[in-house]
Write a structure and sequence with these properties.
mainly beta, Trefoil (Acidic Fibroblast Growth Factor, subunit A), globular, 2 domains, 33 strands, single chain, six-stranded mixed β-sheet
Length: 403
């Protein structure tokens, strides 16, 4: 016999530690604990309701409001901000809506691990995908691993991630871009015909790309959306239509993937600026690895005296300060060199542009890179995705907080 509530498991989100010299520790903040729905299919991931359209996806458990739920043990309603999570249509994502006491919004955590509505449909991670932003749809109950969920208390740990001393109080100001891990200093750019190519990061208008909202979904520029057509064809900017081909997420492998299952791919591993960027099967090869970043004018931002001093005495193209994603991971535009001026601001010798962001563990193998021994020796898993997407999302895109 099924029961509405089968138990609560514990989980935690662990903050990344700093990995560059002696960093000042930030003041501890009280931890936040909330009730969320975890998935057994992807360790450390939770059900996440996107603010833009109210649809359900999976993302790393983060104790944010989009993952907070109230579960009514008596009725089986899953509530968020006074609305109910429902599964109205087979094959479509679960969605947040005004509660109507319908059977499609009454849920049971079954003994086999499935999360089932009173209509007989189950929550299902689409196509067994494990990427952040993957839709959670309503589907026939099969008790497969991608249908197994559980209630969990998520605790967001007090931050111990430390920034270098004397960091400027003001956040970074620049242009939201999609940068390449494959060729440092290159960004995605929109050509005159709307097709996507690689280009030297130089802060031109055609390189401005960001999520319309949240941390996944439509990537926009000038009222149009990044679109993947058939595999092998160029990515293009096209009229926004809320299709799976326009629903994007950066993944824990460093790929840029859409809900239709295609990834952005630099054609034939061409390292030159102007290479075509196509839709292709997701292989997680280097030519498919990208990250959300901020392109900032050379000489307008400082990361503190310690890093400025290091750059003044080194001949480097990249600075990798933290193993995980961080604004303290920096690269010069194109083949330029990083440096620091007399005021301690970071400079680039080419195209007047410095790119902030990315994960240190994905940048240390490049020539002329400056990285700490701790990063080079990093063997465990680290987050290659931002925890704060505001610099790459909606109205706040272009402002990156230093923390």
């Amino acid at each position: 016999m099924s029961i509405r509530l089968s138990g609560v498991a514990a989980a935690s989100v662990i903050a990344l530690a700093s990995a560059f010299g002696a960093h000042a520790q930030t003041a501890a903040q009280p931890p936040v604990t909330q009730l969320s729905i975890g998935t057994k299919f992807v360790e450390g991931f939770c059900l996440d309701i996107r603010q833009a359209d109210g649809q359900a996806v999976i993302n790393k458990c983060n104790a944010q409001a989009s993952q907070a739920i109230n579960y009514d043990e008596n009725t089986g309603q899953i509530l968020q901000n006074g609305k109910c999570v429902a599964a109205p249509t087979k094959g479509q994502p679960l969605a947040l809506r005004a509660c109507a006491n319908g059977k499609d919004e009454l849920w049971t955590f079954e003994a086999d691990g499935t999360l089932k509505t009173d209509t007989g449909l189950c929550a299902d991670v689409l196509n067994y995908q494990r990427d952040p932003g993957t839709a959670v749809i309503a589907w026939d109950c099969t008790a497969t691993d991608n249908q197994k969920f559980f209630l969990t208390n998520i605790r967001k740990a007090a931050s111990s991630t430390a920034a270098p001393p004397e960091v400027a109080a003001a956040p970074l100001k620049g242009q939201p871009v999609i940068a390449s891990y494959f060729v440092h200093g290159q960004c995605l750019a929109v050509k005159g015909n709307g097709e996507i190519e690689t280009a030297t990061c130089d802060r031109k208008d055609g390189q401005t790309l960001n999520f319309a909202s949240d941390s996944s979904g439509a990537i926009v520029q000038g009222g149009k959306c990044l679109t993947a057509k058939e595999n092998g064809s160029a990515l293009v900017m096209a009229a926004c239509a809320k299709t799976p081909q326009q629903d994007w997420a950066f993944t824990s492998e460093g790929t840029l993937r859409n809900r239709a299952g295609s990834c952005a791919d630099i054609l034939k591993f061409d390292p030159r600026a102007g290479a075509q960027v196509i839709a292709w099967d997701c292989t997680a090869t280097d030519n498919q690895k990208f990250y959300p970043a901020l392109a900032v004018q050379s000489g307008t931002a400082s990361l503190g005296a310690q890093l400025s001093a290091a750059l003044k005495t080194a001949n480097v193209t990249t600075l990798t300060v933290l193993a995980g994603y961080s604004p303290f991971n920096v690269t010069a535009s194109a083949d330029g060199k990083l440096g620091a001026d007399d005021k301690g601001n970071i400079t680039s010798t080419t195209h007047d542009t410095v790119v902030f962001g990315g994960a240190g563990v994905m940048t240390v193998n490049f020539p002329n890179g400056l990285a700490s021994g701790e990063i080079k020796a990093q063997t465990g898993k680290v987050s290659v995705l931002p925890t704060d997407w505001s610099f790459f999302s909606g109205a706040t895109a272009g402002t990156m907080k230093l923390k």
